[in-house]
Amino acid sequence: MRAVGVTNAAVTSSLLESVESSDLIAYGLIPEFIGRFPILVSLSALTEDQLMRVLTEPKNALGKQYKKLFSMNNVKLHFTEKALRLIAQKAMAKNTGARGLRAILESILTEAMYEIPDSKTGNDRVDAVVIDEDSVGSVNAPGCGGKILRGDGALEQYLLQHKLEDSVENAEAADGEFQEGESEVSSRTMSM
Length: 192
Fold this sequence. Notes:
Layout: H1 9-17, H2 21-27, H3 31-34, H4 48-56, H5 62-71, E1 76-80, H6 81-94, H7 99-115, E2 126-131, H8 133-136, E3 147-150, H9 154-173, E4 187-188
Parallel strand pairs: 1-2
Antiparallel strand pairs: 1-4, 2-3
Helix pairs in contact: 4-6, 6-7
Pfam families: ClpB_D2-small
GO cellular component, one term: mitochondrial matrix
Keywords: ATP-binding, Hydrolase, Nucleotide-binding, Protease
């Protein structure tokens, strides 16, 4: 019932919502097997924004879990908005949904998690780990991993430095015209 081999995603979704046991039997599955599934449910893929919400909003969000893990060693964890979006895009590209988010975060943070437990002091102490777009990489290529910031106040210095860089980039993009809100840093610390 496809028109020229192309189906609209909305049509496909509505068709999947109306699937019944008899449809699966007609497809070729045996009735004894289908009888073991009293309820049939159709699911749709999560969007990029929904995956970002999975990373940040629920009580046990993955970002919050890693932040808590890092805070046990007095280390701050910071994600930029672009990094969160890239992580969500990678999960979508792998077609793994929310389950793939943990594997992606694990690959980004593994090196940092081994580095943190070192009991160093002063400027050698790990203060924070920053996950930005360089840390994540692109959808098809791995990134460099979490950026380990050492020394007291290293995260604040990093954010201040990048705030100034963002301000310069925004000013150039606006052709010298100052617009309200340009100097705001385009990242967020996940407050948990």
